[in-house]
Amino acid sequence: MLVIDKYAYSNRIVKWSPKIKGLLWLLGIILAFQPIILIKIVVLAVVIWHTLYATKMSVRVYLHWLYAILPFLLLSVIGIVFTMSPKASQIYYPIHLFGSYFGVSKVMLPRGLRLGVQVLTAVVCTYWFALTTPFQQIILMLKAVHMPALMIEETMLMYRFIFIFIEACEQIYRAQKLRLGYRTFRLSIHSAGILVKMLFQQVMTDYQQMVYALDAKLYNGEFKVGEDDE
Amino acid sequence: MIELEHVDFSYEKNHPILKDISAKFGENGSKVVGIIGPNGTGKSTLFLNLVGILKPTSGKILVDNQPINYSKKGLNQLRQKVGIVFQNSDQQIFYSIVKDDVAFALHNLDVPKDEIKQRVNTILRELDISHLKDRPIQYLSGGQKKRVAIAGILVLNSEWLLLDEPTAGLDPDGKRRMVELIKHLIDRGQKVILSSHDIDFMYEVCDYFYILQAGHIVKSGQKETVFDDEKALLKNKLDQPWLVKIHQKLHLPLYANEAELFADKTLQAKLAKLE
Question: Which Pfam families does the entry mention (chain B) (predicted)?
Fold first, then answer.
């Protein structure tokens, strides 16, 4: 079960219009990418505070969600900030290596940090949107910005079936693990292969049954989405 | 009435699933037909034949004296007359929100929006799931999902409702509510065909039975007589309903359901004397 989904349906601002939330998200992204660093940091703090307030989530849980993206962010910043240079003066804490100097570049450090804050702010804004907007409202928003119907249909069906797929995957994985299928690296690879194969087979049989059910409900090739008011 | 005349069905040659099935569902005013049989005897295959998803390899199926018309238009009409709810709810719920899913079949029929709204609300109220209207499907319990799946078909107002293993995987509460729901549907005139191997459940709700064994109908009859022969039932990997057992073995009267037994005042008086 995707816990992130639960917050989206039961937060303090769930009743806000999805259009307003969409616009606020856009505003947040714009502010994250504008040049003044102080504004970015203010936005970052305010949005984190508001996410915690709206979802009644504990700081620990929130940080837990952030861990998912922190490694990528850190790696990018490290890649930008560390450099080799022939002159020791261009580098903080230079280390002499193979005739040149390795360390944190004096020019790149502010840039790297700025980029880090920028990305973090944008991510935090997106989390705010994802954690406070139920899927139904996202669909309404996609409709409001005139996304193609096919894409909206696809999004909807994916959202419906991803839970069933994840659950099936978890069940097989658990059953394998209980019988020591992931004891060593070699076994893990082998078991993972079986898992993928089984999931594929299941998808095929489930598909057949879905076709029957669609038939019974007079499916004519179109899923109407978001016909209703909010 | 749904009539089967010598229906055979097989997915591949020499592997018949249904063999020479003849039956008249809805004959003599029976409103709740039970198809019972152990796992893998072709109950679900029979259902798929009844709604025209599968076509008999030989024999005929007549709905209201008309053979099924397998053209797209004919099948469309058939499915408005005969609705089917499958065993696995997850595979027949396509939308993520309850009310959207219940409305699906009506959207497919191009029913006007206001009417859809009204019919969906009526059905949700009838099945006692109005409070789930805006809920995401993935947070519903098994019994609730089953109700949503049934609502999605009932909304078509079809004359017949086919329920494949409606109690599979339900807890006692879910099962009890399912019995109540089916009884309620029958009271308002819905004709129902059920398939299951849950004998006590079937005895409680159905009035006419067909016993299926390896693709054959081995016995059919009224509720009062069809479970007479315990040995034959056991041989067919089934069992006698417990109310029939106490009737045969303890010589109590044959009760139609549990409530009737516990409401029997003369029995209570007799039992009181024993003490």
Answer: ABC_tran
- Per the CB < 8 A criterion, the answer to whether A167 and A206 are in contact is no
How far is the C-alpha of A136 from the C-alpha of A133, rounded, in Å?
A: 8
Output the pLDDT for position A226.
62
Contact B53 A164 (CB under 8 A): no
Q: Which residues of A touch B79 (CB under 8 A)?
A: 215-216, 218
Beta bridge partners of B216: B213
Burial class (CB in 10 A: 0-12, 13-18, 19+), A18: buried
CA A97 to chain centroid, in Å, comes to 39
Cβ B166 vs Cβ B85: under 8 Å = yes
> What are the residue ranges of helices labelled H in chain B?
43-50, 72-81, 98-108, 113-126, 142-154, 172-187, 199-205, 223-226, 230-235, 242-250, 258-262, 265-274
Strand bridging mode B208-213 / B32-36: parallel
Interface touch B53/A212, C-beta < 8 Å: yes
Nearest Cα to Cα of residue A126 among A15, A33, A29, A4: A29
Domain regions of chain B by residue span: 2-223
Average pLDDT over residues B119-128: 92
Task: Please name the amino acid found at residue B16.
Answer: P
Question: For the residues A65-84, what does the mean pLDDT come to?
Answer: 87
Instruction: Measure the CA–CA gap between B172 and B168, rounded to whole angstroms.
Output: 11
Give the percent of chain A with pLDDT over 90.
25
CB B53 within 8 A of CB B47: no
B247-261: b or e for each residue (b if 16 or more CB lie within 10 Å)? beeeeeeebebeeeb
For residue A99, name the pLDDT band (cuts at 50, 70, 90): confident
Identity of the amino acid at B234:
L
Q: How far apart are CA B189 and CA B184, in angstroms?
A: 9
The model carries a pTM of 0.80
**Residues of B engaging A, defined by a Cβ cutoff of 8 Å:** 48, 51, 53, 75-76, 79-80, 83-84, 86, 88, 90-97, 99-100, 103-105, 107-109, 113, 117, 134, 136-139, 152-153, 156
C-alpha distances in Å from residue A110, one per residue of A41, A42, A45, A70, A119: 14, 18, 20, 19, 14
DSSP string, A172-184: HHHHHHHTTTTSS
